[in-house]
Design brief:
Blueprint: H1 3-14, E1 19-29, E2 36-44, E3 47-52, E4 57-62, E5 67-68, E6 72-77, H2 86-95, E7 98-103
Parallel strand pairs: 1-4, 1-5, 6-7
Antiparallel strand pairs: 1-2, 2-3
Length: 106
């Protein structure tokens, strides 16, 4: 992350600048607590910059009650040990909420 991106994220988080995109009207899933709550999500520089209500964005995506959930990261996986094709492992991972796999071949 560059210094300019960091400054931009902070400005959006403080409400001093609008985000590129605000997802409004959604329900945020917290995988740590199991809670599901109404929440807006502001995105700037390809990252979540703020959560809350009344966020400003250059573009607003109305979710109409749809769910927002963070993508999970599997930081240590052995695809070859699964005896499945990498594409099959990827499909199974996405179905479980995993959006990133870090493979560690033996």
């Amino acid at each position: 992350m560059t210094g300019e991106e960091r400054r931009r994220l902070l400005a959006v988080a403080r409400g001093a600048q609008p985000a590129e995109v605000v997802f409004r009207g959604g329900r945020l899933v917290n995988p740590f607590t199991g809670e599901v709550a109404p929440c807006e999500v502001a995105v700037a520089c390809g990252r979540v910059a703020a959560l809350g209500e009344g966020l400003r964005g250059e573009r607003v995506v109305e979710l109409r009650g749809r769910y927002l959930c963070p993508g999970l990261i599997d930081a240590h996986t052995h695809i070859e040990s699964s005896l499945a094709l990498p594409s099959e492992v990827g499909r199974a991972a996405v179905a479980g909420g995993v959006t990133t796999l870090v493979a560690d071949p033996h």
